[in-house]
Amino acid sequence: MDPHALRPYIGEDGHHYQTVMNRDGTLRAVRLQNALATLRTDEWKEFDDVVVKVARERLNAVADLQSAGLTKPIAAGFGKTVLQTDTQSDTNDAEVDMDGITQSANDRPVYEPTFLPLPIIHKDFHFTARQIETSRQGNTPLDTTMIEQATRKVAEEMEKMLIGVSTKADQFAYGSGVIYGYTDFPSRITRTITAPTASGWTGETFLDDVLSMMQDSRDVFHFGPWKLYVAPAWEKYLGGDFKTNSDKSLRSRVLETDKLTGITALDFLTNFDMVLVQMTSDVVREVSAMNMTTLQWPTQGGMQINFKVMAIMVPQIRADQNSRTGLVHGSV
Fold first, then answer.
1. What value, to the nearest 5°, has the Cα angle with vertex 72 and ends 116 and 122?
2. Angle between helices 41-58 and 145-163 (to 10 degrees)
């Protein structure tokens, strides 16, 4: 399914059009024989601008994966319900000798298939045909509150899935696969950390916890680069002095650590949880079968115009066949 099929528009000439994707991936406008469109080009543009703006506000961890290129696009993803990948075992070490004639172990990696469900994340809203026409007659833009709310709900669900706190994903299993996030992935490394409210806690305590989490990752052969995610409750401590009368904040001191690329508070992390993530594709990537988009169709004889903000974007947290991964979850 091409989502453009449910995005018809009224052109400047008053005729109805639909965007069609060519075989080479380019787009072209095709005039529709039957009057199916409701929104004009500028109205669709306003809706899409709202979707992009609101999504950026809520997608922090997901946006980090996208900006780092840790994505897996799937062409024609609407027609695919699962993603099949393979985990790979390690092989023996290389030999070292002067002549190169010593027979090394002749082995090969073992592969085991895994499956990731690709559900649709969506939220609906609607306008009546009269609301749309009243907006045009009065030269006032449509109220975008409903599309903002729908987009926010979809974006928040995507973010919760990646963090591992989505109640929807916890209950969702399909095709022998389950969606996991940072804090519920079975193979993640766990570590007990100290809450800043504990007696004797200092900035050095926090730094030690972060360094220990990094060492946990190194111990299973994952050497960074890492991104540190923290619960919002950490923010006031990260902005404080690293030490008494220090000229550095705790955040700036921790960021001096080698291969730690950033510290970000995530709205949906709870308590004083922290997650250290090696930002490489063998640890995590966002599978994108359909980017967030808005679809439209009429009901009630055209008197009600229905809209759906939807996306097929799910996290894929990864480990090798020995359950080793560069994902460390610290909690108190």
1. 65
2. 40
Please indicate, yes or no, whether residues 145 and 71 belong to a single structural domain of this protein: yes
**Length of the chain in residues, anyone?**
332
**Residues 270, 197: one domain?**
yes
Domain that residue 70 falls in: 39-81+115-178+285-317
Q: Both 149 and 52 in a single domain?
A: yes
Tokens of 49: 């601008």
Residues 264 and 64 sit within 8 Å (Cβ to Cβ): yes
Assess whether pLDDT exceeds 80 at residue 234. yes
Map residue 71 onto helix, strand or coil: strand
160 and 292 in a single domain? The answer is: yes
How far apart are alpha carbons 95 and 38 in whole angstroms? 69
pLDDT above 90 (res 243): no
Poorest-confidence range of 105-114, 199-208, 267-276, 283-292?
105-114
* Closest listed residue to residue 319, CA positions, set 164, 90, 159, 80: 90
Single-letter residue type at 287:
V
Pair 131, 218 in one domain: no
Residue 55 and residue 152 in one domain = yes
Domain total in the chain: 3
Write the CATH number for 130: 3.30.2400.30
Helix H, strand E, coil C: the string for 255-282 is CCCCCEEEEEECCCCCCCCEEEEECCCC
Predicted confidence (pLDDT) per residue in 49-69, tens digit: 888 888 777 789 999 999 999
Q: Which residues contact 268 (CB under 8 A, 6 or more apart)?
A: 156, 159, 160, 163, 165
Give the CATH number, domain containing residue 250.
3.30.2320.10
In the predicted structure, residue 329 carries a pLDDT above the cut 80: yes
Q: Please, are residues 259 and 241 in contact by the beta-carbon 8 Å criterion?
A: no
pTM: 0.83
Asked if residue 159 and residue 296 are part of one domain, the reply reads yes
Dihedral in degrees, nearest 10, Cα atoms 278, 83, 322, 190: 50
